[in-house]
Amino acid sequence: MPSHLPLSLSRRGFLLAGAGAGAALGLTPAPARAAARPRPFGRYGSPADRATPATLYVDRGGRGDFTTVQAAVTAAAGSGWTLVIAPGTYRETVAVDATRTGTTWIGASQDPRDVVIVYDNAAGTPRPDGSGTYGTTGSATTTVQADGFTARWITFANDWLRADHPGVTGTQAVAIKVQGDRSAFHHCRFLGHQDTLYADSRALTAFARQYYAHCYVEGDVDFVFGRATAVYENCHFRTLDRTDLAGAPYGFVFAPSTAAANPCGYLVSRSRVGSAAPDAFYKLARPWVPGSDPTARPMLTVRDTHLGAGIDAVAPYTDMSAAYPWQDQRFAEYRDNGPGAEITVPENRPQLTHEEARSATREVYLGDWAPWKEC
Asked: What are the strands, taking DSSP E only, across 146-235?
């Protein structure tokens, strides 16, 4: 959240602020609209006039087929369904299992600030049945395991706050965990603090391809992480201010955990990294070598991207574990700009050669899948 807002302000209230919150984030304001919506699904039809037979409508006010997103997902068994979601804040957890392939979710207003899917579980939150805590994966507000998933104009959020739970040590709180191949997100927002966007795969040997275009992601610790092959294009990453720490670093933007056999990890292209925190209080990345895959070789390439003053230009990378130094991983940059991209200590900023940069493209990373043509 913006630095002028107290950290104790619940993200729940921040989300409900709607367009005002979007303006505080520096996002383009949406045109003014009447409070009453006679057509909650915009140009995408209605239950009485379906865009296609495989289109379902969600509206928390009761004007659709379902009032919750999960109810619509449950009804959309099989492949090829489209969910059109009316403006509103949907406080629920949602899971799309691997059998529901080729699903598309559309925010009906075409403004991601209007459609918010949010919940507030953290890794250390006790499960209601007494079986322990949720863990990082279980904390996710939305989990997508299916291949071929597409979302447009939707906000995925986790509004759990450390300040509200001082006794909880498992502070990871995932907004969305994406595991499927060919998963695309256009004009979406991902809001959280620690572990906001979990771009992953269903198995160590599965090289899931994901594409994020014109998206906004915010957080503090490892808030874009996982082992997927993921391309982030024309995205805005924003690091949050913190009052619970006395000094730097406040956190880390990226924490890839790419499998060693995977030739392509995270690619950030033509994007920007901004900050609400003091200058140089954030690292650009650290490698995550999870216990489930000690042979992982995390990979991150950041190219043609503006790095703001919040990034520590002298030492933008650091270790998550001394056993896996970042220098042994696959971190590189190419033609970045901004104060956070200034090369003051060359050995701390590995750069691609022009020849190497020819392979650091969305076409190489995503192969025969071209989701940018679907925009």
From this structure: 150-152, 155-158, 176-178, 183-186, 189-191, 197-199, 209-213, 216-219, 221-226, 229-233
Tell me which of 65, 114, 200, 222 is the catalytic residue: 222
List, in sequence order, every residue forming a beta bridge with 188; answer none if it has no partner.
none
Is residue 222 annotated as a catalytic residue, yes or no?
yes
The phi, psi pair for 90, rounded to 5°, reads -100, 100
Rounded Cα distance, 115 and 153, in Å:
7
- Residues 152-182 pLDDT 10s: 999 999 999 999 999 999 999 999 999 999 9
- Asked whether the predicted pLDDT for residue 370 surpasses 60, the reply is yes
Q: What is the pLDDT of residues 68-92, one digit of tens each?
A: 999 999 999 999 999 999 999 999 9
Q: Are 196 and 171 in contact (CB under 8 A)?
A: no
Whether 146 and 113 have beta carbons less than 8 Å apart is answered as no
Q: Annotated catalytic, 244? A: no
Catalytic residue among 120, 195, 312, 336: 195
DSSP state of 154: -
- Which backbone phi and psi does 335 adopt, to 5 degrees? 50, 35
Three-class DSSP category at 191: strand
Distance CA 80, CA 77 (A): 9
How far apart CA 109 and CA 196 sit, in angstroms, is 24
Judge contact between 99 and 3, C-beta under 8 A.
Answer: no
Residue with tokens 């970045």: 336
| CA neighbor of 317 nearest in space, from 335, 306, 301, 304 | 301
Separation between Cα atoms, residue 211 and residue 196, nearest integer Å: 16
Query: Which residues are 157's β-sheet partners?
Result: 118, 191
pTM of the model: 0.92
Say which DSSP state 244 is in. S
